[in-house]
Write a structure and sequence with these properties.
The chain is an alpha/beta fold. It has 3 domains: 2-45 and 65-115 and 198-278, Rossmann fold (3-Layer(aba) Sandwich); 128-196, DNA polymerase, domain 1; 300-363, Ubiquitin-like (UB roll), CATH 3.10.20.30. It has 14 helices and 13 strands. The protein has helices at residues 13-27, 47-55, 85-93, 119-149, 153-170, 183-192, 219-231, 240-247, 251-260, 267-279, 303-310, 312-316, 326-332, 335-340, and strands at 2-6, 34-36, 39-43, 60-62, 65-70, 97-103, 200-205, 234-238, 281-286, 291-298, 318-325, 345-347, 357-363. The protein has a 7-stranded mixed sheet with strand order 2-3-5-1-6-7-8, with helices on both faces. The chain has a 3-stranded mixed sheet with strand order 4-10-9, with helices on both faces. Helix 1 packs parallel to helix 8. The chain is flat, with a radius of gyration of 23 Å. The two termini are 28 Å apart. Bound molecules: guanosine-5'-diphosphate and magnesium ion. Magnesium ion is lined by residues 13-14, 72.
C-alpha cells in the first residue's frame, strides 16, 4: 500500500512524514529502509504478531508495510506547471490513497502561504489543482475518443461519459462524487486513474493542547470533519510537532509520553487505522518457526486470492485453507489444542478471509 502526503507548503507534511518514517524505523528491529528522502517504508504495528511469534518460536516477524511519499510542491497553479507542478501530480497518480495535511494550528512563527489559517480554503485550493489535473486528462481523452466515435458505438458511449464527467469536474467536484450509470462506466472510470477518485484521509494538524480531546474544541477541526463527512473521506487529528518528539522516544518512554498527553494511540497508529478503514483493508496472518507474517488484503477477498498474495503458485494450485482465528488460537494456547476443540476449520475456494485469521494454505504445485 502506498500513501501520498499532500498539502500546501508549511502545513507540516515533512514533519509528519519524518515522524512516521522514524517511528517506523525505530519500532522495527530489522532493516526497513528509506529508499529516497521522500519515500519511506513503515511497518504496520500489529501486536498480534509478537504474541504469535512467541507461540511458534519464530525466527523472524514480518509485519505488513506501508509506503509513504512526501509529495512537496503543490501550490496554487500546480496543474499549470507552477512549483514542481506536473512532476508532483504524477507522483500522486501512483498512490492508493491521499493523506491531505491541513493546518489547523496557529503559530505566528510559521508562515502560511495564503496569509491566514483557514483549512477549508486550503483544502479547496489543493482539491482544485487535483481537479484541474484530472480535467486535462479527460480533455485529452475526449480529443482521442471523438475521432473514432462516429463509427464505433462503444467509443460513442465512452465519449458521452467523458463529456458528462468533464461537466462534473468543471463544477469543481471530484470524480469520486460523479454518478455512474452502469458497471461498464465504472470500469472505464478506473482506467482513467484520476486523482480525484482516490480515497482521501485529512490529517488535521493541531497544536499540542488540542490533542487530548481529539480536536473537539477546535472550530477548524470541526469544519474539516464536516467537509470530510460530506465527501466520504476520513479525518484524523495530529500534532506533527509532537509526533516528531514521540518518534524519538524508546518504546517505554513513548507509552508514558502518550499517557501524559491523554492519548492511547500515536499518530502513526491513527493514520494506519484510517487508511485500512478507507481502503477496506484487513490483515490475515501466517505463522511458523521460520516466519510469522501479516498480509494485507481487501475485505471480501476469497481464500485463493488471499493465498495469491503470498505466491501466485498458492493461488493457482489452491486446494484448501486451514484456518483458526487469532483469538481462538491464543485462547487455546496452541494450534493442536485449537484443532482438538474443533476451532481449526478447513475452508475451500469460496471462503472469505477475515481479519485476524491465522492461515495455513494447502496447494498443489
Ligand atoms: N506549531 C507547530 N508547528 C509545526 C507543526 N508541524 C509543523 N510545524 C512547523 O511548520 C514548519 C513547516 O513544516 P514542514 O513539515 O516543513 O511543512 P511542509 O512544507 O508542509 O512540509 C516547520 O517550521 C515546522 O516545524 C505543528 O504541529 N505545530
Ligand atoms: Mg515539506
Amino acid at each position: 500500500m502506498k500513501l501520498g502526503i499532500v498539502g500546501l507548503p508549511n502545513v507540516g507534511k515533512s514533519t509528519l512524514f519524518n515522524s512516521l518514517t522514524k517511528a517506523g524505523a525505530e519500532s522495527a528491529n530489522y532493516p526497513f529502509c528509506t529508499i529516497d528522502p521522500n519515500i519511506g517504508i513503515v511497518p504496520v504495528p500489529d501486536e498480534r504478531l509478537k504474541v504469535l511469534g512467541d507461540l511458534y518460536h519464530t525466527e523472524k516477524i514480518v509485519p505488513a508495510a506501508i509506503e509513504f511519499v512526501d509529495i512537496a510542491g503543490l501550490v496554487k497553479g500546480a496543474s499549470k506547471g507552477e512549483g514542481l507542478g506536473n512532476q508532483f501530480l504524477s507522483n500522486i497518480r501512483e498512490v492508493d490513497a491521499i493523506v491531505h495535511v491541513v493546518r489547523c494550528f496557529e503559530d505566528s512563527n510559521v508562515i502560511h502561504v495564503d496569509g491566514s489559517v483557514d483549512p477549508l480554503r486550503d483544502i479547496e485550493t489543493i482539491n482544485l489543482e487535483l481537479i484541474f489535473s484530472d480535467l486535462e486528462i479527460i480533455e485529452r481523452r475526449i480529443a482521442r475518443t471523438a475521432k473514432g466515435a462516429k463509427n464505433d458505438k462503444a467509443l460513442a458511449k465512452e465519449l458521452e461519459l467523458l463529456e458528462r464527467l468533464k461537466l462534473h469536474l468543471e463544477e469543481g467536484k471530484p470524480a469520486k462524487s460523479f454518478t455512474l450509470s452502469d458497471e461498464e462506466e465504472e470500469a472505464l472510470l478506473l482506467t482513467y486513474n484520476l486523482l480525484t477518485c482516490k480515497p482521501v484521509i485529512y490529517a488535521a494538524n493541531v497544536k499540542e493542547e488540542d490533542l487530548a480531546d481529539d480536536g473537539a474544541k477546535n472550530e477548524r477541526v470541526a469544519q474539516v470533519r464536516k467537509f470530510a463527512k460530506e465527501e466520504g473521506s476520513e479525518v484524523f487529528v495530529i500534532c506533527a510537532q509532537i509526533e516528531q518528539e514521540i518518534a524519538e522516544l524508546e518504546e517505554e518512554e513513548k507509552k508514558m509520553f502518550l499517557e501524559e498527553l491523554g492519548l492511547t494511540e500515536s499518530g502513526l497508529e491513527k493514520l494506519i487505522a484510517a487508511s485500512y478503514h478507507i481502503l477496506g483493508l484487513i490483515s490475515y496472518l501466517t505463522a511458523g518457526p521460520k516466519e510469522t507474517k501479516a498480509w494485507t488484503i481487501k475485505r471480501g477477498t476469497k481464500a485463493p486470492q488471499a493465498a495469491g498474495k503470498i505466491h501466485t503458485d498458492f493461488e493457482r494450485g489452491f486446494i484448501r485453507a486451514e484456518i483458526v482465528s487469532y483469538d481462538n488460537l491464543i485462547d487455546c494456547g496452541n494450534f493442536n489444542q485449537a484443532k482438538d476443540k474443533g476451532l481449526v476449520r478447513s475452508e475451500g475456494k469460496e471462503y472469505v478471509v477475515q481479519d485476524g485469521d491465522v492461515v495455513l494454505f494447502r496447494f498443489n504445485v
